[in-house]
Design brief:
alpha/beta; about 45% helix; 2 domains; elongated; about 375 residues; 13 strands
Length: about 375
């Protein structure tokens, strides 16, 4: 029985790939699963060839230092394809590397399932003909992606967003606050500075300054900071409680959020948390991004809504007093701004499809490997 090989380069991909791996193991317990990924994938039965912690990078400039490691890993995967032992490759996001893997697998005659495809609607539209040529099936997670990819010859199907599979993990707000030891009568600001060290370094200063400004205006506000496992946050920079590996609990306990751009904004939509979005990268990466990114929003919650559900602050626009101005009305339960945000987030949740994305992706995998 030939193996299914996953290629995952980041923590979010590890989570979603683990769900697919678990579904595959339930259907075919003897099918070998191997690949690159993280601890959740290993727990789901995937033999890791490389840990995703050694692969994660973000920004056009930051990716450069990973090139030698990626080159060695690509050669390892090519040798594995040539051996004939691989029956299917499942790629998750991470397009800078995974597009090369897709090409190598296609050349070797190995079918490719791309689950969570490159964001060609934002930048990198030149990847569309390559996706059509190299990818056997694309399982897309945003509602507008299916039509876009099919228009360019990609065999794509919208499977829903995998975050919806985790709704059952979300506690009720009162239970979440109790679990975190928070006063149920006082508002809570949740701060999500990012899951990568480079994001932490760039965001903690302005995010903490914003939180202090929010508290200066309203001393009743409680602040908690969400952090990914294994990411250190210096106590001299962060005077607030740091909660690790419990993002949904933090989201459900909070009244409002200050979030870095990315999947966290969709998690907030699913959790029903009004928030503002802030993001800062290196000056060079930002300059490049301004030239190549073709969409008006950086927050996924706004991309899905196709309008500005959540305020965005990018680069030098992250001025603590101005970000605090945007957060303040979201902390007031009866404010028009908060009610509008909640309605927008409900619209986003409705657009994300139905639970079961992982199972649907696994079903495509079983078809392809046969």
């Amino acid at each position: 029985m030939r193996e299914i090989l996953f290629v995952v380069g980041e923590a979010s991909g590890d989570l979603h790939a683990a769900k697919v791996a678990a579904a595959l193991k339930a259907a075919e317990p003897s099918r070998p699963l191997v690949g690159t990924g993280g601890d959740r994938m290993r727990a789901a039965g995937v033999e890791l060839l490389e840990h995703s912690e050694r692969m994660a990078a973000i920004g056009f400039v930051e990716v450069l230092r990973h090139i030698p490691r990626h080159w060695r890993l690509l050669n390892t995967l090519k040798a594995r394809f040539a051996s004939g032992r691989v029956g299917l490759v499942i790629l998750l996001d991470y397009p800078g590397f995974n597009m090369r893997v897709a090409e190598a697998a296609h050349t070797a005659g190995v079918p490719v399932l791309y689950y969570i495809t490159p964001q060609v609607w934002a930048w990198g539209a030149d990847r569309l003909p390559k996706l059509a040529r190299w990818v056997s099936k694309a399982a897309v997670i945003l509602p507008f992606e299916e039509a876009l990819l099919r228009k360019h010859g990609v065999n794509a199907t919208f499977v829903g967003h995998p975050l919806l599979d985790r709704v059952h993990e979300m506690p009720e707000p009162a239970a979440a606050r109790a679990a975190l030891g928070l006063d149920p009568e006082r508002p809570v600001l949740a701060v999500f500075p990012g899951s990568r060290r480079s994001e932490i370094e760039r965001h903690m200063g302005p995010f903490m300054a914003t939180a202090r400004e929010v508290q200066r205006r309203d001393p009743a506000v409680q602040v908690v900071v969400s952090a990914a496992p294994g990411i250190g946050i210096d106590a001299s920079v962060c005077p607030y409680p740091v909660i690790r590996d419990a993002s949904f609990t933090v989201l459900r306990a909070a009244t409002a959020g200050l979030l870095k751009s990315g999947t966290t904004t969709l998690e907030a939509a699913v959790a029903g948390l009004p928030h503002v979005i802030a993001y800062r990268t290196s000056a060079l990466s930002y300059a490049i991004a301004r030239r190549v990114v073709k969409i008006p929003h950086i927050g996924l919650v706004n991309v899905v809504a196709e309008r500005g559900v959540s305020r965005e602050f990018v680069q030098d626009a992250i001025v603590p007093s101005e970000v605090a101005d945007a957060i303040a009305p979201l902390l007031r339960l009866a404010s028009p701004e908060r009610e509008a945000a909640l309605a927008g987030l409900a619209d986003v949740r409705a657009r994300l499809g139905a639970p079961g994305a992982s199972e649907r992706a696994a079903a495509f995998a079983r078809e392809l490997v046969r």
